[in-house]
Amino acid sequence: MDRRVLRPLRPQGRRAGLLRAVQGALGTAVVLALLAWWLVPSAGPAYPHRPLSFATGVANGVYEKYGMLLQGDLRTALPGVRVTLEHTEGSVDNIKRVASGRSDFTIAAADAVASYDGPGKSRLRAVARLYDDYMQLIVPRDSPVQSIRDLRGKTVGIGQEGSGVSLITHRLFQAAGMDIDKDVTAEPVGIDQAPAMLLDGKLDAFFWSGGLPTAAVTAMATPLARIRLVQLGDQVASLHAMGPEMAYYRQAAMPADAYPSAQQGKAVPTVAVPNLLITTDRADAGLVERLTRAVIDSRDTIGTVVHAAQLVDLRTAVFTDPLPLHQGAVRYYRSVKP
Questions:
Q1: Contact present, 208 and 159 (Cβ < 8 Å)
Q2: CA atoms of 334 and 303, how far apart (whole Å)
Q3: Which of 25, 163, 242, 285 would you call most buried, defined as having the most Cβ atoms within 10 angstroms of its Cβ?
């Protein structure tokens, strides 16, 4: 055999081996890139990697539980950002914290937002409308109380100062033609203390405003505890007559299965008000866009624990009156608009 025939094949063999090596390296790089894309939510807008504070509410309340669950989802949605939860007195306190820059995000009831007239008001922005709070008046099962007017002369938990509960409770007494400072003995306690005080006989009744069901009320709404919910729906018309800020209250009914043993199979007419997730115009647009996506995407997982969160929906999330939407939230809603 002529050796000259074999000589050209050797360089080609080396080039083929090199080509296979390059192809293998490129294939590995592609796989690694795809894996990184799958594991890390890098797609989407850039955002500052700095700590964030989220004001929630009182212990055992729905705000607190919702915030705790959302915190876990934000670890994935905002890699590199540490989210700290802050216990507060509730809606009124929350708005002041965000408006003043002490907190970055919070949840607050729309009536409290509309009533706020302090520093930073013009900078407040909404991220999403979440779910409605239902006003709940809880009494012992054998209590003679059938309406708010029957509370005269009784000791009543009216919510902590700085809470949305306290704000609505004061307005309900006014709508009923009562003086909260004279007609009842008002105790400024929240859902973290009021249930035990009622069961111990230290309260004749207490008010609570929260998503349905609220875990602390569920825990005491047992056949042994023997509690009952009192209707408040007869006060809605009187509330609306008090001024334009009262327009955020609507007549609603707590479903019969919200607290079955406390409602004896009946829906309870009451007052409801929407909750908003809020921030300020100082918040980075890219960060807010990612956070808004996390709020919407986490609805089902959070809803398995906080049932009210199941009501978070793209169709209603954009209705955030009295606040305009943050620009980052607008960008998200536009990106998913059919």
A1: yes
A2: 24
A3: 163
Exposed, middle or buried by CB within 10 Å (0-12, 13-18, 19+), for 337?
Answer: exposed
Q: How many CA atoms within 13 Å lie on the side-chain side of 286?
A: 12
DSSP state, residue 325: B
pLDDT at 239 over 70: yes
**DSSP state, residue 150:** G
CA separation for the pair 161, 50 (Å, rounded): 32
The span from the CA of 268 to the CA of 265, in Å, is 10
Tally of CA atoms within 13 A in the half-sphere of 248 that contains its CB: 27
Banded model confidence at residue 14, pLDDT cuts 50, 70, 90: low
> pLDDT tens digits for 97-124?
999 999 999 999 999 999 999 999 999 9
DSSP string, 193-249: THHHHHHTTS-SEEEEEESSS-HHHHHH-STTT-EEEEP-GGGHHHHHTT-GGGGG-
Kindly tell me if the per-residue pLDDT of 166 is higher than 70.
yes
- Once rounded to an integer, what is the mean pLDDT over residues 219-228? 88
Quickly state the pLDDT bin for 264 (edges 50, 70, 90).
confident
Residue type, 5: V
Cβ atoms of residues 57 and 209 within 8 Å = no
Which tokens hold the place of 280?
A: 């300020």
- For 325, phi then psi, to 5°, come to -75, 145
- Predicted structure pTM score: 0.83
